[in-house]
Amino acid sequence: MVSQRHGFVIPLSIAALVLGFGLGGCKNSRPRPNNIPRDSVYVEGGKFYWWAHCSYDANQDADYCQTFNSGGDILKDGKFLPYDGGNAAKESALDIDGSSHFSGPYTVGLKNGRILIPKSDFESQKRSIDSMLKAREHHPTWWRR
């Protein structure tokens, strides 16, 4: 009788674990509203989260990004420029880093370390990032996650 119970315990445990992750055990388990593109990246910042999506337009040699709040409302939508002043990030380099300190509701941090800023608000967002980088220089332990 004991061996029959063991036969059910392992499959039942595995099923519970899979169900737990499926229902919310993963960090990126927040529901994505239907109007947000499927390949958008989940970004979490403290108590809030949002979604980011970018694409490269080869004809204009430009990056276009959208950020959405948790309810699916558009926060930013348009042409984004690289913080470093370089060329637009090609499609292969538009790998959004959802855990970057520079991924925010109005900016997009990429996994290669580059940061994209909306052209419409470039100077203001650039000043904000400049301040963050200065803080990182003076307080490197604060910066770590």
Could you state the order of secondary-structure elements as H and E?
Answer: HEEEEEEHH
Shape: globular
Main pleated sheet: 6 strands, antiparallel
Query: Quaternary state, please?
Result: single chain
Average pLDDT over all residues: 81
Main β-sheet, spatial strand arrangement: 1-2-3-4-6-5
The number of distinct helices, counting runs of at least 4 residues, comes to: 3
- How far the N terminus sits from the C terminus, by CA atoms, comes to 49 Å
What's the number of extended β-strand segments?
6
Count of spatially separate domains: 2
What gyration radius follows from the Cα positions, in whole Å?
Answer: 20 Å
Poorly predicted spans: 8-27
Helix content: 25-40%
Main structural class? alpha+beta
Which percent band covers the strand fraction?
25-35%
Main features:
145 residues, alpha+beta, six-stranded antiparallel sheet
Q: What does this 3D model show about the protein?
A:
The protein is an alpha+beta fold and 145 residues long. It folds into 2 domains: 27 residues; 103 residues, no CATH class. The protein contains 3 helices and 6 strands, in the order αββββββαα. Strands 1-2-3-4-6-5 form a 6-stranded antiparallel sheet, with helices on one face. It is globular and about 40 Å long. About 14% of the residues have low confidence.
What's a quick, concise take on this entry?
The protein has 145 residues and is α+β, with helices and mostly antiparallel strands. It has helices at residues 2-25, 122-138, 140-143, and strands at residues 41-45, 48-57, 62-69, 74-82, 108-109, 115-118.
